[in-house]
């Protein structure tokens, strides 16, 4: 192990805590009742674990499913746990600290009932911030610069119905990579005729090579794991 990565690791796991997605917003309104709160701040590292669907304990339903008008903006928000749960985590205690660099991705899947789905569904990647060559371009850093929030606008044309939203920060500072995941339950209303395309399954979507990436090299080139981001055409 290189000296540099050892330092990074010590920072990551002793000085700072792990993080969880612990708030959810619909058009700016805090709607935590629709978030499946994970049972631990520990990440998922086992590529065969069903926890890769909605995080540890994430099969447990939230208090309700949020009605979300097609075209609305939803946001998933992360904070270090334990830590400062302020609306905008401060720079000295960011949403995900300790140089937990990695991509941030948002997936969604259509389900019969978001309140009871186990998350064993067809997941479509709808948003992603990965890495474009500078430290500040890591998805996790973009997240920190945005108060821990990753937003996604539900396409106006998306078919109405129940969906799970899955947010993931994949920290690559140490190996194996650490997935911090949580899901929210939504009921899209007033939508159109666009259906999600075929997606991927969790577990199963990622390979060990993809999540055990050594990022502490110069001229790093990096592509986030999973499918390409899907965008509705209308
Ligand atoms: C979703 O919203 C529709 C339209 O308001 C409603 O008829 C339906 O009961 C809702 N379903 C769930 C599971 O909340
Ligand atoms: Cu960690």
From TrEMBL:
Catalytic activity of the protein: [(1->4)-beta-D-glucosyl]n+m + reduced acceptor + O2 = 4-dehydro-beta-D-glucosyl-[(1->4)-beta-D-glucosyl]n-1 + [(1->4)-beta-D-glucosyl]m + acceptor + H2O
The UniProt record lists the keyword NADP: no
Record domain Auxiliary Activity family 9 catalytic: where: 18-213
The enzyme's E.C. designation: 1.14.99.56
PANTHER family: ENDOGLUCANASE II, PUTATIVE (AFU_ORTHOLOGUE AFUA_1G12560)-RELATED
Function: Lytic polysaccharide monooxygenase (LMPO) that depolymerizes crystalline and amorphous polysaccharides via the oxidation of scissile alpha- or beta-(1-4)-glycosidic bonds, yielding C1 and/or C4 oxidation products. Catalysis by LPMOs requires the reduction of the active-site copper from Cu(II) to Cu(I) by a reducing agent and H(2)O(2) or O(2) as a cosubstrate.
Protein name: AA9 family lytic polysaccharide monooxygenase
Organism in which the protein naturally occurs: Microthyrium microscopicum
Lineage: Eukaryota, Fungi, Dikarya, Ascomycota, Pezizomycotina
